[in-house]
Amino acid sequence: MKYPLSLSRRDLLGRLAAGLSLASLAAADRRAHAAAESASRRAQGATAADIPLLDPNSPPAKAVGYVEDAHAAGAVAQGNTCASCALYQGSYGSTQGECQLFKDRTVKAAGWCKSWAPQM
Ligand code: SF4
After folding, report:
1. How far apart (Å, rounded) are the C-alpha atoms in residues 67 and 79?
2. N or C: which terminus of the chain carries fewer CB neighbours within 10 A?
3. Is the pLDDT confidence value at 13 over 60?
4. What is the 103 CA–ligand 1 centroid distance (Å)?
5. Domain boundaries, the chain
6. Which of 68, 115, 119, 120 to mutate to test the pocket of ligand 1 (most atoms within 8 A of CB)?
């Protein structure tokens, strides 16, 4: 059986590479936007302590399985906490800080969610 639309391997790989590039650019744009918002709030004198903590029972938190204590998450490897996540915006040694996933909310440094990503 012949399919009317067939992509060559080269076309397929090219489209895949283009898609991955766009996804990377979008992720970088989101990070830059979150960092700019965070800098803006700090310029206005706000600290992470001024921003309310994320409610673990809120729909956005539940969507990514956020918990305030990483040890409460059964699948979490030792040391994978918000404090060691690439999306965490809190300063070194902070107990809570902003996360690029959640606008206008902070997360516990000891927390964790399914979107945890290693720092580069
Ligand atoms: S993305 Fe990272 S910093 Fe944000 S809640 Fe998940 S583990 Fe914590």
Report:
1. 14
2. N
3. no
4. 12
5. 9-108
6. 115
